[in-house]
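Technical appendix A lists one of the benchmark inputs used to test multi-chain prediction within the project. The record comprises two sequence entries:
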Amino acid sequence: MSFASILAQLLNGLAGASSLFMVAAGLSLIFGVTRVVNFAHGSLYMLGLYVAYSTVEFLGRTPLGFWGAIVVATIVIGALGALIEIAILRRIYRAPELFQLLATFAVVLVIKDVALAIWGAEELVGPRAPGLSRTVEIMGRRVPQYDLALIVIAPLLLLGLWLALTRTRWGALVRAATQDREMVGALGVDERKLFTGVFFVGAALAGLGGALQLPREPANLGLDLAVIADAFVVTVVGGLGSIPGAFIAAILIGVVKAFCIALGTQSVLGLEISFSKLTLVVEFLVMAIVLVVRPYGLLGRPPAQQRAVGEITTLPNMPDWRRWLPFVALLALIPFAAPDDRYLLVLLTDIAILSLFAVSLHVLMGPSGMVSFGHAAYFGVAAYAAAILMRKVQLPMEVAVAVAPFVAGAVALVYGWFCVRLSGVYLAMLTLAFAQITWSVIFQWDSLTGGSNGLTGVWPPAWLADKRVYFWLTLVLCALGIGLLWRMLFSPFGYALRAGRDSPLRAEAIGIDVRRLQWFAFALAGAFAGLGGALFAFSKGSISPELASIAQSTDALVMVLLGGVETITGPIAGAAIFTWLKDELARRTEYWRSVFGLVILALVLLFPQGVVGGLAMLWRRVRPAS
Amino acid sequence: MMLHVEGLHSYYGRAHILADVTLEAREGEVLALLGRNGAGKSTTLKSVIGLVRPSAGAITFAGARIEGLSPFRIARLGLGFVPEDRRIFTDLSVMENLEVGRQAPRGGAPTWTPDRLFELFPNLGRMRDRPGGRMSGGEQQMLTIARTLMGNPRCVLLDEPSEGLAPLIVEQMAKTIRTLKAEGLSVVLSEQNLHFSAMVADRAVIIEKGRVRFTGTMDELRADEQARTQYLSV
C-alpha cells in the first residue's frame, strides 16, 4: 500500500466526515438544550438529500441551481424541524424523556412513508456539482474537486457555529439552557422560542449534511436509520453536547474507516483479516473503545445531575399468578375456537414471543434504569444459535432451543460488562453499537450464518409441526419466562435493582453492588430475550440478519414505551397492540408505517404514561377512591 | 401593593408543603420570610415565580394575577428570582451570565447595566471573562443577584441570600440589599438567620410547617419572644 493510496483514502474519509459532522452537530445541539434524543435526525438528513435532488431538477443543473438547492433544502428541513418541535415535542417536554424518544421515532416512520410517496422506492442519483465535477490530481491519484470542497466546508461551518455559540446572545442562551433551562426561564427567557430555534438550527444542519451528499450518495429510503446510527456514534464519541467533539469524532471515524478500505485484506500473524469488511463495524469498535476509556466521550463531561422533581412513583403490585393462569388457559383455548384460522395462530404466536422479548427489555428499562437501544442483539443471536445448532451441529431442536438462551446470555454478559459502566443516553448508545456489531457479524459471516440470505429450513420436529402445538409450547414457555422475570422483580434482587436505579449512591452506601446487579440483570434480560429469539426462529422456519437489526431493537423499544415503562403488564399490552396493529396495517396499505407512526403520536400525546399507565389513570379518575 | 399572596397551597407529589400561605410585600419594602429548615420558605418563593405550580391560591404582582403563568412570563412582568443554590451558568463568563438575564428597561424600576452592577459588586468587574464555575461561593452569590438585576425587576425574591457565606461577605450582602431598597426595589427574602434579617428587613413573616405563624414589623418580632423561640430557635 503506497502513501498515495493512503492519502487518497484519507481525503475520501475526510469528505465523508463532513456531512456526518453536520448531522451529529445538529443532534448534539438539540440534545444539549432540550434533552431530546432526536431519532428523526437521520430522517431529516435523508429528506435534505431528497429535497435537494428535486430542487436541482427544478432549478436546473447549473451552479446557481445546485447551490440554490442546497440552501433551499437546508431551510426547508430547518423549518420542518421547528414544526416538529412546535406540533409534537413542545407538548411532551414534561413527560418522561423516553416518551420524547418514542415520539421522534414515530416521526421517523411518518417521514419514511412521506418520502416513499413523493420520491418512490428507487434510488435517486443526484447530479455532480456543476463547476466542481472534475477531479484534481494529487500525487498521481484523482481526487474529486467536490470532495475537496466538502473538506473545506466542514471546518468553516464549525467555525461559524462556534462563533454563533460564543459571540452572540443566542449562543449564550443556548449554552445556559444546556446547563439549566429552568433557570433560564426564571430569568425571563422564553424557552419555547429558544427550543424552537434550536430545533430549526439542528434540523437545518441535518438537512445541509444530507443535501451536500447529493453528488456523492444516491438518495434512498434506508438512509434514515443508517445515518442516525452513525450520528449517534459520532455524537457519543465526541461527547454529547460538544460540537468540536462531534467534529473530531467525525474525522476520527471517517479516517479510520478510510484506512480500513485502504488496507484491504492483510495477513496478520498468518491470519487473513479483511479490513475492508471491517468498515461496517469499525466505527462501533471505535465508540466502544472510547467509551470504556472516556465514558463521556472525547470532549464530553459528565451530564449535570438532573434535579430531583420530588415525584413519588408507586410500586406496582406483584402480579398474582392465580389471576393470570386462567387468562393464559383462555389463550390456550383459542386454537379450538378458531381451528382454521392459521393467520390468527401465527399472530398469537408472534405476540407471545414478542411479549417475552418486550418484558425482558422492560426489566432493563424499568426497574434497572438501563435503556437499551440494541436489545435485538440477544434475540437475533439466540435465533441464529438455535438454527445453527440444529442445522450445522445436528442437535435436536429441543436441545437447540434450550441452549440458545444461554448463548444469548453469555453474549449479554460480555456486552453488559461494558454497558453497565455507563448510564443514561451513553449506555443506550453503547447498546446500539454492540447490536450493530452483532448485526454486522451475522451479516458478513456467510459460511456460518448464510449472510444476507439468512438460514432456511429451520423447522421444528414432527411433534411440533402442527401450528397449534407450536403455539401451545410457545405460550407455556413465554408465560413461564414472563412469570419468572416478574417474580424476580419482587425478590430482594429486584428491590436492590430499583434502589440502584433511584439512588445509586445510597444503594452503594448500604452495601449494594449496583454495577454487579445491573450486570446480572443485563445478562438475564439478554437470556430471556434469547428464549424469545429461539422460539421465533422455529416458528418462521427461516431467519435473516433482520432479527438483530436496529429496526428490531426499536420495535421492542416501542412496545415497552407504548405499554408504559412504569407498569408491569405494560410491555405485554404494548407487544400485543404493536404486533397486531403492524400486521393489520401492513396487510391493508403500503403506507402502514405512517399510519402506525401517527397512531403512536396520538397515543404519546394522549397517554404520556403509556397505554396501561394512561388507562390506569383514567380508571382512577372515573372511580375515585373506591 | 407590590406582591400579594392569598391562600397559597403547594404540593410536591403528595406531600403538602404549603397550606394556606397569605402574605404581602409593599412597594419599596424588604420583607423577610423566616422559618426553620424545611418550613416552606423556598417553596413559597418558587411558587410565586412559577417554578412550583401552586394547586390553589391567588398571587397578585403589581396589579396582575400571576399564578399559573410560566416562569418566563412572570419574570417579564418585572419579578426577579435569585435561587438559593445560586445556579450560576458555570460554562458562561460573568459577562455572559449577565447577558442571559438581560431584559429591556422597565418603567417604574431602576435600569441596570453591567457597568452599574460592577459599581455595586466591584469584585465582579475584575473578573468579567472568568467562567462562573471558577468563582468563589461569595462571588457566585453576587453574580446571581447581578444576573437577576439585569432584568430590571421591580421586585426581587432572594432565596437564602446569606446561606453559606463568610461573615464578611454576609455584611456585604446586607449592604447590597439596603442599596437595592434605596434604589426603590421591593425585596422578599427567605432566611433562617434572624440576625441577618434584622439588619435589612422592615417586616417579617414566619412560616412553620407550611403555615404562616407570624406577620408583623421587625420591631414587633423583636418584642415577641414567644414567636421567636417557638418558630425560629433551633
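Chain A has two domains: 3-293, 338-587. Strands of chain A lie at 135-138, 141-144, 265-268, 271-274, 455-458, 541-543. Comparable benchmark entries are summarised in Table A2.
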